[in-house]
């Protein structure tokens, strides 16, 4: 029957197909509604100096305060927003929010003078022709210097179209923003391309951190990335540090910065302001 009716009949009569089309349309409408009605929020997770344990940066992490389902993490909606394109306006909103928030902390607290903010970019945002203008406008409107902003991209985004990625990275670099490779080690970076890219920071994925205190193979891998960072003059950040043992091991290896529940979960702006004057963030009271 599908054959006789051609493509349209397939779209109409296949129940799984029409369900997913409906669901997609519904999700798009929900996300659009949420953007218009200010249902998104940004939380900020501490990034600390591995030696002093002082706060050096925060990563902006988006949440959806859903009127019925409660607080939703990115896994509930980022992929959908990426598929339907709404990630571009949503990502722009997060970027503008994060820049404005850093400017606010700085206005309120002298200790925030050196604080930086990290913002994740999605693949679609990274390919979007208006990205550089969006970033430049977000910085200007917040009155923020470009060097205070670090944009996080993943290896797959870089390797999908290396020439285009290189051009975008250089345009962002000309603005003066810093660039980080997120989830490093989970993708397929080519070392020869990595060398040519204007990247400032390598964020080592949590999967290498989880057992680094007990698994010699993970020690060797993280050690290799630390060496890579040193050779390419890129800073290293370890993600997902939860225990003192992991922190000790990573510090010994020579990782520069750390992020994880040990130092703090994603938090409201007011909670971050309180951490600015903290002597150390490895105290479990802050977690
Ligand atoms: P990511 O950029 O790698 O961010 C780190 C994720 O690891 C965050 O999850 C953070 O809460 C979590 N995390 C940090 N430390 C620990 C730890 O010690 N233990 C554990 N179990 N988890 C830890 P979150 O906030 O759920 O975000 C997940 C991902 O969603 C992010 O991974 C990022 O890829 C994406 N994402 C978040 N916000 C945005 C955004 O504004 N735009 C885009 N495009 N993607 C975003
Ligand atoms: Mg990230
Ligand atoms: Mg990551
Ligand atoms: Mg991730």
UniProtKB/TrEMBL annotation:
Keyword Transmembrane appears in the UniProt entry: yes
Leader sequence residues: none
Does Transmembrane helix appear among the keywords? yes
Which residue ranges does the record assign to the EAL domain?
24-280
Q: Which UniProt key words apply to this protein?
A: Membrane, Transmembrane, Transmembrane helix
Query: What protein am I looking at?
Result: Bifunctional diguanylate cyclase/phosphodiesterase
Task: Give the species.
Answer: Paractinoplanes globisporus
Q: Which residues of the full protein are shown?
A: 467 to 753 of 753
């Amino acid at each position: 029957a599908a054959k006789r009716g051609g493509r349209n009949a397939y779209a109409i009569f296949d129940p799984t197909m029409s369900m997913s089309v409906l669901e997609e349309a519904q999700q798009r409408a929900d996300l659009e509604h949420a953007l218009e009605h200010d249902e998104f929020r940004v939380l900020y997770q501490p990034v600390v100096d591995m030696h002093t344990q002082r706060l050096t940066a925060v990563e902006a992490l988006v949440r959806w305060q859903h009127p019925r389902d409660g607080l939703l993490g990115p896994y509930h909606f980022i992929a959908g927003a990426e598929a339907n394109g709404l990630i571009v306006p949503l990502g722009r909103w997060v970027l503008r929010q994060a820049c404005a928030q850093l400017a606010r902390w700085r206005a309120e607290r002298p200790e925030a003078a050196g604080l930086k903010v990290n913002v994740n970019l999605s693949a679609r945002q990274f390919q979007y022709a208006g990205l550089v203008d969006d970033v430049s406008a977000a910085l200007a409107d917040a009155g923020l210097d470009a060097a205070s902003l670090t944009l996080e991209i993943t290896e797959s985004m870089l390797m999908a179209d290396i020439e285009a990625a290189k051009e975008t990275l250089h345009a962002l670099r000309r603005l003066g923003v810093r660039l980080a490779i997120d989830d490093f080690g989970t993708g397929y970076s080519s070392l020869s391309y990595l060398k040519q890219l204007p990247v400032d920071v390598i964020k080592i994925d949590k999967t290498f951190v989880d057992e680094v205190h007990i698994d010699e193979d993970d020690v060797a891998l993280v050690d290799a990335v630390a060496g890579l960072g040193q050779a390419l003059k890129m800073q290293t950040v370890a993600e997902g540090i939860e225990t003192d043992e992991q922190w000790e091991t990573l510090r010994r290896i020579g990782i520069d910065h750390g992020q994880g529940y040990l130092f703090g979960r994603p938090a409201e702006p007011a909670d971050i302001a309180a951490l600015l004057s903290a002597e150390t963030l490895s105290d479990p009271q802050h977690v």
